[in-house]
Structure formats: C-alpha cells, structure tokens
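On clarity, I found the account of how folds are encoded harder to follow than it need be. For illustration, here is how one protein appears when written out as sequence plus structure tokens.
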Amino acid sequence: MGCCASNPAGGSKASRISRWRSTGIVGLRDAKLKTFPNEVIEMERAVRTLDLTHNKIADVPGEISKLINMQRLLIADNLIERLPGNLGKLQSLKVLMLDGNHISCLPDELGQLIRLEQLSISRNMLIYLPDTIGSLRNLVLLNVSNNRLKSLPESVGSCASLEELQANDNVVEELPASLCNLIHLKSLCLDNNQVKQIPDGLLKDCKSLQNLSLHNNPISMDQFQLMEGYQEFEERRKKKFDKQIDSNVMISSKGLDVGVDK
C-alpha cells in the first residue's frame, strides 16, 4: 500500500529527484501532470533535459527561467496556450519542442535564445511568427507546420544556419525574398498552402537546396521550371536521390518526386 507502488514516474519522490540531479535528465513523459512540477523548478541549474511530453499542462510558469543550464525542453502534446517572456532567459537552450499545443503566438523574447538549434512548434494555432526569430543565428531546424500562418517574416532570412524549414499545412500566400539568403538551406517544405510563386532567386541563391516541396499550392510546374537556377537545383536533387539509392534508403512509390504538382 506504499506510495511507491502508485507513483507514475517510478520510485519515491526523493529517489527520483536524486536520479534527476545525478543525470541532469528529468523524464516525466506521460505522467498525467496537470501543472508544471515545482520540484523541477527547485532543481534550477541541475536540469539539462526536461521531457514533459504528453501531459495536460496548461501553463508554463515564469520561474522556468531558473533552469538556466537546460539544453533540451520537450513539452509537446500538452494544453499550453502561451509561453512566458522569461523563456528568453534560457540561454543554454538548444532544442525546444512545442508541437501539439494551443499556442497562438510566440513571445518576442524567443529571439534571445541565441544557442537554439531546433525549434518545432507544429500543430498549434500560430497566426504569425515574431520578427525576433531572425536573431536565432544557430537555428538549423524550424518546423511550423499545421498552424494558421499566412506569411513568414522577412527576418527568417537572417537565420543564417537554417538547413530545414517545414511550413506545411498553413495558409501561406507569399514567401519573403530574404529566403534567398539561406545559403545552408537543404529542405523547404510548403505543402498545402496558398503559395502562387516563390522568390525569383531562391533556386539560384540557395545553393544547398536539395528538396523543395510545394504540393497542393497554386504554383505550376511550368512556372517552377522557368526559374533561374532550376537546372542546377535539379542536379542537386537527383544527386541526393542517387545517394539514397546507393545507400539502400527506402523511397516512396512516386520515385523522384519533383515537389510541385503538374
């Protein structure tokens, strides 16, 4: 009848906290939590990774700023509607996973997360991204799919390290010309939007681009093929495809997908 038998995270509270402190990893995925755990906030500098995925947490407290050594915050599939501005004080943060919440806007202070490498906030209710996102110069992955975005900010072109941008299933109508500045961009996914054209220099200037997916958009294959840099883009794409075959990587039944509906 002891409390240990019913503890969803396993072990007594004291032993769990001791384990968290020794490893720096706090694992509370699927723990049926409704509030952000105070015992985690009290650990302050000891937390390196915090996984709160798939709970029922509705609020992230401002005190999260005490976790100044945290590098990974995984808080997907909860009930969060807003994030505190204090989130910007987590200067060590490299990975932030917020997918599957109810977030409609991100705080401007997000731009203070200068070490952030991965930001995933798909399946939310975002209607815009803050201009300060351009301050994330170390960002490699940005996933904003399945939101309500009508545009991407011009400042996204300042995310100098960006390699993958996923913005599928939004209502994006036009893309900022600054995307052409993303010389490390390898993959741009914009399926199921309202994109009529892409910036003129995108295929020419984004010399690392290997994957561009624009299915279910008003843009036509003819428009795409007439763009400057199209042939070079095709060569890069086919080279990647050949490498996948050589490595026995599974590919779809479509084969070499051109990325644009005909």
Q: What stands out?
A: The chain has one domain: 15-247. The two ends are 66 Å apart (CA to CA). The domain at 15-247 is CATH 3.80.10.10 (Leucine-rich repeat, LRR (right-handed beta-alpha superhelix)).
